[in-house]
Design goal:
The complex is a heterodimer of chains A (316) and B (354).
Chain A: H1 5-21, H2 28-37, H3 39-53, H4 61-77, H5 82-107, H6 111-130, E1 135-136, E2 148-149, E3 152-153, H7 154-172, H8 174-184, H9 186-191, H10 196-222, E4 224-225, H11 233-243, H12 255-274, H13 279-298, H14 301-311
Helix pairs in contact in A: 1-12, 3-7, 3-8, 3-10, 3-11, 3-12, 4-5, 4-6, 4-10, 5-6, 5-10, 7-8, 8-10, 11-12
Chain B: H1 3-21, E1 42-47, H2 54-65, H3 67-70, E2 72-76, H4 86-96, E3 101-104, H5 113-121, E4 125-129, E5 142-145, H6 152-161, E6 168-174, H7 180-193, E7 201-208, H8 213-226, E8 230-235, H9 238-251, E9 266-269, H10 273-281, E10 288-291, H11 293-308, E11 319-322, E12 326-329, E13 335-337, E14 341-344
Helix pairs in contact in B: 2-11, 6-7, 8-9
Classes of the chains: A mainly alpha (316), B alpha/beta (354).
């Protein structure tokens, strides 16, 4: 738990400060609903732990979610049975994710390059399909974000469930160990008998599947699909993963940290929003938070002292 | 605990405290009795499409100008991006703050539907301003639009015609070929040109600059090359108008300029005063038009107070007076038109800062 101290402590700080600057902040239902607004991003961030700890990156997640939402909405609007549409949505998103993995391992290309391309392709396909129009879904499928169980909304429950599952898979299974090994050093992993390329493809497949879950939640929350939803969400997702303590260069994962970072970001945004902090300040503060967390990880107090001592004048 | 973690916590604490001071308003006004008139005022928040846009600053000025007279406790809160869903959190946050009326310039005609319904269920009044939830009007109580868009075509044609003696070849420089507003205006320009008064004006071409300065410039230059006798250009888009003005300025072919022939090329259109100020002062563009966004704020603010006090019936055809602004009417789909096109010239342009 020690390594999750930073996001935990910061969340506490935000809670205290938030309650001081606005009397409307500490309201459980409000905080819960605000977190639900970002739950889709949190869900993808949890899955992104697999890709990033395997030393890869997936920038196409937001576009995947939106394209899947658009396709699913089209099917729903065409009158297909909802269960068929949802299942197809999950399959489509999973395949889109898997496609990234296949392209990366086939061309032996950097994941950054491939997923920047698919980011544009998926988003472009959604735009080509819908243009500036939107597709509405049947009214009875709207509002999963307002359904609660045990005090939490369904999207948040799914987020928690996926966190538990991802933590288990990454820490307690052979596949999880393989993912970390590939991220730490792919050559060593290969020589130790790890099916490196298959592992990489699997991480993208998992992320794709979670994009599918997120897209269905998004669709039910908004009631419409548009091609211009969730622009730039990939950056929020990567921010959550990195703030959570998963090494961006691979070789380690911290799923619980991502969950805590998700709550930290949610609390911070909500506190600033309800206090009507201007948009410009909000962006600046979130940027500073990012740098601060990275610094806190890299630079311990002792190392600064050591550096200072060693660079100081030598006693004669 | 690592000392660095502690230091980080403290510094963040300081940061948020500082940012609280930078916010557009404080929460003190919600404390009962903080100001003697607090109870009587209607708490109205305006949510623009994006932050830092002078156009919306002008809308806000319309609210502020009459806030005391109408009894408005006004604030505004922009979303962090112009993304379709970035306004969702702002809507939620502002309702949580206890705002009574939300006036919003929606970034999407339908992605906000559910969030708006949720705050309406809590008793918040929702008014759209500047643009509307077209096709989803039931998710707001009333929509305030800047001008009657059907007047734009005729007024623009008249503005150009009056400057070229209603005679000669003209062209239109538009934004993108699939922009609904632009196409509607171009259609009504064509209808207007069919009237006898404009019989000697001939529309030779419509080109599209895609609202990109570079493409708009290229398209303008192409127009000049292809149509040697061109007398006028209408650019009903800010980016296009500014780009075309630059071309005319460089080639010095505006009326009265060095290289002008057959009386010079007259350029007009729709644009913001800030973008065209230089061109107007340099004499490249004599007249152009746009609405005054402040009207939107004034009318929406007044509507907010009246709806809150339940003093206004939103039935189609209902007429109401906005003090100092004149008479307005609730039109089809609960739309209210806030103002008229303003024609900007060298003389009046400095009164408008947006």
């Amino acid at each position: 738990m020690r390594r999750n101290l930073t996001p935990l402590l910061l969340s506490l700080v935000v809670l205290i400060v938030g309650s001081r600057i606005s009397p409307h902040f500490l309201d459980f239902a409000y905080l819960r609903d605000s977190a639900t607004l970002l739950a889709e991003i949190g869900i993808i961030a949890i899955a992104m732990n697999f890709v990033i700890s395997a030393g890869q990156i997936d920038l196409s997640v937001g576009s995947n979610m939106v394209l899947t939402a658009c396709l699913t909405a089209k099917m729903l609007a065409a009158g297909l049975p909802p269960i068929v549409c949802f299942a197809s949505g999950l399959v489509i998103a999973t395949l889109l994710g898997y496609l990234n993995g296949v392209l990366i391992t086939f061309f032996k290309a950097p994941s950054f390059l491939i997923t920047v391309a698919t980011l544009a392709i998926f988003r472009g396909a959604a735009k080509a399909m819908l243009g500036p129009t939107s597709v509405k879904i049947p009214a009875d499928l709207i509002g999963i974000d307002t359904v609660t169980a045990g005090g939490l909304t369904v999207p948040l429950l799914i987020l928690l469930m996926l966190t538990v599952m991802a933590t288990f898979v990454l820490n307690k299974t052979v596949f999880g160990r393989w993912v970390i090994a590939v991220g730490a050093n792919p050559r060593t992993a290969l020589f130790s008998g790890v099916p490196v390329e298959r592992v990489i493809r699997s991480t993208f497949l998992i992320t794709g599947f979670c994009c599918g879950i997120a897209s269905l939640l998004l669709l039910s929350r908004l009631g419409v699909a548009r091609s211009d939803l969730a622009m730039g969400s990939e950056l929020d997702i990567i921010t959550i993963v990195v703030v959570g303590g998963t090494a961006i260069q691979g070789g380690s994962a911290n799923v619980v940290g991502s969950l805590l970072a998700f709550f930290l970001l949610t609390l911070l945004r909500t506190a600033m929003g309800v206090a009507s902090v201007t948009a410009e300040y909000q962006m600046t503060i979130i940027g500073i938070l990012l740098i601060a967390v990275v610094l806190a990880k890299r630079v311990s107090f002792q190392s600064i002292v050591k550096k200072f001592k060693s660079s100081g004048p030598k006693p004669t | 605990m690592k000392p660095s973690t502690l230091a980080l916590g403290i510094s963040l604490l300081a940061l948020i405290a500082v940012s609280g001071c930078g916010s557009t308003k404080t929460d003190t006004s919600t404390t009962p009795g903080a100001t003697p008139t607090a109870g009587a005022k209607t708490k109205i928040v305006f949510i623009p499409k994006s932050a830092g846009n002078p156009y919306f600053t002008q809308v806000e000025s319309g609210f502020k100008k009459n806030a005391d007279q109408f009894g408005i406790d006004f604030s505004s809160q922009a979303p962090s991006s112009a993304d379709a869903t970035s306004q969702l959190a702002v809507i939620k946050d502002q309702a949580q703050r206890g705002e009574e009326v939300i006036v919003i310039a929606p970034n999407s005609p339908d992605a906000l539907n559910e969030a708006l319904d949720q705050v309406v269920a809590k008793g918040v009044i929702v008014i759209t301003a500047d643009s509307d939830l077209t096709g989803n009007e039931s998710h707001r109580s009333v929509g305030v639009l800047p001008v009657d868009f059907t007047t734009i075509g005729p007024e623009q044609v008249e503005l150009l015609g009056s400057q070229i003696n209603y005679e000669g070849e003209i062209a239109i420089l538009s934004a993108t070929s699939d922009a609904p507003n632009q196409n509607a205006w171009i259609e009504s320009m064509k209808t207007t040109l069919a009237e006898p008064k404009y019989a000697k004006m001939k529309l030779v071409e419509v080109v599209y600059g895609d609202d990109e300065p570079q493409k708009s410039t290229t398209e303008t230059e192409a127009l000049l090359t292809k149509h040697a006798n061109l007398r006028g250009i209408i650019a009903p888009t800010s980016v296009g108008l500014a780009a075309a003005a630059q071309v005319l300025g460089q080639k010095e072919i505006a009326p009265g300029a060095k290289n002008a022939k057959n009386g010079g090329l007259v350029l007009t259109g729709l644009g913001t005063p800030n973008e065209l100020r230089k061109a107007v002062k340099a004499g490249v563009v004599a007249k152009f038009q746009l609405w005054d966004p402040a009207d939107i704020g004034t009318v929406a603010g007044y509507l907010g107070t009246q709806l809150k006090a339940k003093k206004l019936d939103l039935k189609v055809g209902t007429k109401f007076d906005v003090p100092g602004k004149g008479s307005f009417e609730i039109k089809e789909k609960q739309i209210v038109i806030a103002g008229k096109l303003v024609t900007f010239t060298k003389e009046n342009i400095d009164q408008y800062q947006y």
